[in-house]
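Input sequence (171 aa), recorded before submission:
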Amino acid sequence: MVLKNLGDLLRLLVVAVLVYPALVVILRVSGKRTLSKLNAFDFVVTVALGSTLATILLSRDVSLVEGVLALALLVGLQYLIAVLAVRWPPSQRLLKSQPTVLLRDGALRHQSMRRVRVAESEIRQAARSQGVGDLADVAAVVLESDGSLSIITRNRFGDGSSLADVRDEQR
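Predicted structure, token format:
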């Protein structure tokens, strides 16, 4: 079906013109953290915002006020979770995954790699993307809580204090 009726298109246009600025305002007020990729909760909020926006735009069963309230509620809950994580550090164990060492001093940590499901080829790719040609030149590769791989070369390792909160099963 190409088009049910022009009323549906008009509704979509009006709702989109009204809800999009509302979402932008909500996101600006909530701060940069709302759309970051810091942890699973941030990712879930981002996906939920997209899904909610689509529902607001396409469903006649959801009023504009209900939709904007739903968006504000999602952002508000994410904000509260972030505040909880900052103000009560024990909550971070529930809310965030812990970074994990996958390579240390040029040696791959196969047990850690299996546990977090990262292949050697992914580590080599991350090293290449940082301009590292030899894994022996790498002091540490860390799988961060946002899913990215951090590469620390030997000449940039310093005292290693940046690894203080990183899980390292073979230490």
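Checked by second reader. Residues 6-93 form one domain.
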